[in-house]
Amino acid sequence: MSIEELFVDLVGTNPVMQGLAGGVVIAFLNLLGASVVLVWRNPTERWLDAALGFAAGVMLSASFTSLLLPGIEFASESGYRAITLGGFALAGIVPVLIGFGFGVAVLDRGERWVHYVGPIISDRLVTRTEARSDGGEGDSTHSHAGGHAEMIGPVATDSDSGNARVLSVLLFTVAITLHNMPEGLAVGVGFGSGNIGNGIALMLAIGIQNIPEGLAVSVAAINAGFDRSWYAAVAGIRAGVVEIPLALLGAWAVTVAAPLLPYAMGFAAGGMLYVIAAEIIPETHTRGHERIATLGLVFGAALMLTLDVVLA
């Protein structure tokens, strides 16, 4: 029995239910990754950078092989009911590019929102200031979240350092949550397209890369002083709250309105590529482990390509 047949036997043939099942699987694997800190007490930064690089490779490959190219192919078929705008039929690569641009824009605005709201939530306004002591410039402290959050100011007290760490975790967690959104949508759209093999490949690949991603978020939280078991559970629940509804929505939307499929595929791919470039790769290149992170990315891309071919 093939993987596709086994999946259909367990879930059924309804694309919406398949999308829901896919969302549950990837959320569960995120929870599994977050829970690894309960047994692996202190993973090294080198290993985490390699794991996040692997996750980026999976997402990079999936964006093209399972979203962009199938979306263009679907919108190029003779039976595709293209939306007409000013006498011009939006078919072929056009609807995919429209969705792609919209996905990038949404993630970009979401990231900007995180940096405005984060300091308010943490009850701390982060500003860029210059401190002077002994007639010179004071030292600056930096706190990065996903390669972006930054605090520059006077030499930090213990309280300042604690607040900075909490803010870093907040920003990093919300950034990862934003990145979970196109992942969940991608899985739902994959099943909603009617191509079960493509949906399963996306589900497995995104689920696998959710494991190191969940671990990374939990480690960041523990380093900031959060309780180990409590945050591991919260990290998994957070992923499920985002990924499961979006997987269900993606499958339902393209099932009800098939012409939306290439737009949805482009949107999911644009969101994932934005996260790779803006969050994951910069984060893995800040601690001197660029080589191992790059090797992880290459291995992740190769794995996704393999899954796409085997399950096609």
What would you say about this model in short?
By secondary structure, the chain is mainly alpha-helical.
- Shape field: globular
Query: β content, as a range?
Result: under 5%
Query: In total, how many beta strands?
Result: 4
> Which sequence of strands runs across the widest sheet?
1-2
Number of helices in the DSSP assignment: 9
The main sheet comes to: 2 strands, antiparallel
Task: Give the low-confidence spans.
Answer: 121-157
Counted up, domains total: 1
What is the helix content? over 70%
Order of helices and strands: HHHEEHEEHHHHH
The SS-based structural class is mainly alpha
From the alpha carbons, calculate the radius of gyration and give it in angstroms.
21 Å
Mean pLDDT, to the nearest integer, reads 76
Q: State the distance separating the first and last CA atoms.
A: 15 Å
Helix-strand layout with pairing:
Layout: H1 3-11, H2 15-35, H3 45-76, E1 83-85, E2 88-90, H4 93-121, E3 132-133, E4 136-137, H5 158-192, H6 196-223, H7 228-256, H8 261-284, H9 290-310
Antiparallel strand pairs: 1-2, 3-4
Helix pairs in contact: 2-5, 2-6, 2-7, 3-4, 3-6, 3-8, 3-9, 4-5, 4-8, 5-6, 5-7, 5-8, 6-7, 6-9
What does this structure look like?
- The chain has helices at 3-11, 15-35, 45-76, 93-121, 158-192, 196-223, 228-256, 261-284, 290-310, and strands spanning 83-85, 88-90, 132-133, 136-137.
- The protein is globular.
- The protein starts with a helix and ends with a helix.
- The chain has one domain.
- Helix 5 (158-192) runs antiparallel to helix 6.
- The strands form 2 sheets. It has a two-stranded antiparallel sheet.
- The chain has 312 residues and is mainly alpha-helical.
